[in-house]
Amino acid sequence: MSKHICNCEHCQHKLCAKNVPIFSLLDPEEIEKVVSLIVRRKYSKGEIIVLEGSSLGSLVIINKGRVKAFRHTYEGKEQILYIFSEGDFFGEKNLIINQKATYTVEALEDTNICMISKNDFQILLKEYPAISYKVMEELCNRLIRLENAVESMSIKNVEARISSVLLEFANKYGKPHSKGILVELPLSREGIANYIGLTRETVSRKMSLLQDEGIIEMVGNKKVIIVDKEALEDSINH
């Protein structure tokens, strides 16, 4: 892993834990204990944080930035499994069942992470059962997303897949806008294609059609305004 230490000027060594859903039920004193266990690192855009098959001895929490978790198919094509952003975590499988990393993690932008060692995290789970519940809740949500992704790739048409991913990004990254919902896309067109099992050309063409229909408005390459959310939802259900 990177040797660059994150100074955490903005979080002052506390926000790392306070902003993480799995620690949200802890009181201030308990948060202080979590903070005392954290080791911080900083990664540049494009830098690999974890390699598939490697041993990861810590729970990794995204303090700032975004990363993608992916595998390569037998054909050598990148398949993106998850997008992790502020407050998200990964590495839990190695801590709980001693499983090596099942995907590679790469920084999509300059990213700060916080790490808690395996031994320290297991102690936290024993002392604060609420953390275990929140971890299970998040893992269930990820399983649901993967199940929906598999169903989408095998059943749903192209329009529905694109609508689904735009709504997913809107729910996670969207902000209110005078025209609807402004979404800063975490992935390029090619990245979106690798996320939902399409080609970059298909994604670009279908998004252009959605814009022509007045359902979305593209703002450069990295932002989209969802003008008609109901239309996107309808395309998934039909």
Automatic annotation (TrEMBL):
Q: Where is the signal peptide?
A: none
- Decide whether keyword DNA-binding is in the record: yes
Q: Which Pfam families match?
A: cNMP_binding, HTH_Crp_2
Q: Is the Transcription keyword given for this protein?
A: yes
Q: Which InterPro entries match?
A: cNMP-bd_dom, cNMP-bd_dom_sf, Env_Response_Regulators, HTH_CRP, RmlC-like_jellyroll, Tscrpt_reg_HTH_Crp-type_CS, WH-like_DNA-bd_sf, WH_DNA-bd_sf
* SMART domains the UniProt entry points to: cNMP (SM00100), HTH_CRP (SM00419)
Q: Which Gene3D superfamilies match?
A: Jelly Rolls, Winged helix-like DNA-binding domain superfamily/Winged helix DNA-binding domain
Question: What are the entry keywords?
Answer: DNA-binding, Transcription, Transcription regulation
**Stretches assigned to the Cyclic nucleotide-binding domain:** 22-142
Q: Where is the HTH crp-type domain?
A: 156-230
Q: Which domain of life is it from?
A: Bacteria
PANTHER family referenced in this protein's UniProt entry, alphabetically: CRP FAMILY TRANSCRIPTIONAL REGULATORY PROTEIN (PTHR24567), LISTERIOLYSIN REGULATORY PROTEIN (PTHR24567:SF28)
The protein in question is named: Crp/Fnr family transcriptional regulator
